[in-house]
Design goal:
Elements: E1 6-9, H1 18-33, H2 41-61, H3 66-80, H4 87-100, H5 111-120, E2 125-129, H6 133-142, E3 154-156, H7 157-160, H8 167-176, E4 182-186, H9 189-198, E5 202-206, E6 220-221, H10 224-234, H11 240-243
Parallel strand pairs: 1-2, 1-4, 2-3, 4-5, 5-6
Helix pairs in contact: 1-4, 2-3, 3-4
Length: 245
């Protein structure tokens, strides 16, 4: 039985392999800013990444602003590696990162094939993402995923004035491509799953960083293959995957 009519996706770590994208872009920035650093990138990056992960919950909860989050992770890593740095350098580093990151974007393996299959079956597709319009659209273009989405079905917080997990950004998206049975796929429980459910959508918890709450009935998919099976079944396209292989 058909459960969904349209599928919307988060961008980073859902459509985009953001871990690979982030690492490549940060490596470029590190070598640009610290050509004579006392440590190598291979030493600095795990320390920087640990600081990213350690402060992430505070950022996601709104305790840290985006600028404060970026500053604290940068300065934590600089201190640990005995690199002279201050908040002004942290801001310049991340401004340079924002200019560069799009060209390093790579799609999650298997995602291009899945989107192609859904597009071939005329399934309405969309993207809802927080962030900068130029950066997020640049990522989609750089890895070739833009061709699967109408421009007005890429809904970005900076452009519309609403930010996940607010229900308003999901309502905005529904109005752009009206459908009754909508599902949203994302990797953040708070931003993606709770946001979608709060707006009356269904949700799929994809490649989760943390376990779903005990007793949750939200589907969890850990791979693109699992996601493909779930979506094709939920869209009433059982057998499409086999015919496309």
């Amino acid at each position: 039985m058909k459960r969904w009519e349209a599928v919307w996706f988060d961008l980073d770590e859902t459509l985009i392999d953001y871990e690979r994208t982030f690492c490549a872009a940060i490596r470029h920035c590190f070598h640009h800013f610290f050509p004579a650093a006392p440590v190598s990138f291979s030493v600095w990056f795990p320390i920087f990444k640990e600081a990213c992960d350690r402060h992430w919950d505070d950022y996601e909860a709104g305790t840290l602003t985006r600028r404060a989050y970026r500053r604290v992770r940068f300065l934590d890593a600089a201190r640990a590696c005995q690199i002279e740095a201050d908040e002004e350098m942290a801001d310049r580093f991340h401004a340079y990162f924002d200019e560069a990151v799009s060209r390093f974007a790579v799609a999650l393996p298997g995602m291009t094939d899945l989107l192609g299959q859904l597009r071939a079956a005329n399934v309405p597709l969309g993207v809802i993402t927080n962030g900068s319009g130029a950066i997020q659209r640049g990522k989609l273009a750089a890895c070739g995923l833009h061709r699967f989405f109408r421009s007005d079905a890429v809904v970005i917080s900076e452009e519309v004035g609403y930010k996940k997990p607010a229900a308003a950004i999901f309502h905005y998206a529904r109005n752009k491509r009206p459908s009754e049975q909508l599902v949203y796929v994302g990797d953040s429980w708070k931003l993606d799953v709770e946001g979608a459910l709060g707006a009356g959508w269904e949700a799929v918890y994809f490649r989760p960083r943390q376990p779903a709450p005990v007793g949750s009935s939200v589907p969890v998919c850990r791979t693109v293959g699992e996601l493909a099976v779930l979506l094709l079944n939920g869209l009433g396209l059982v057998g499409e995957r086999e015919r496309g292989t």
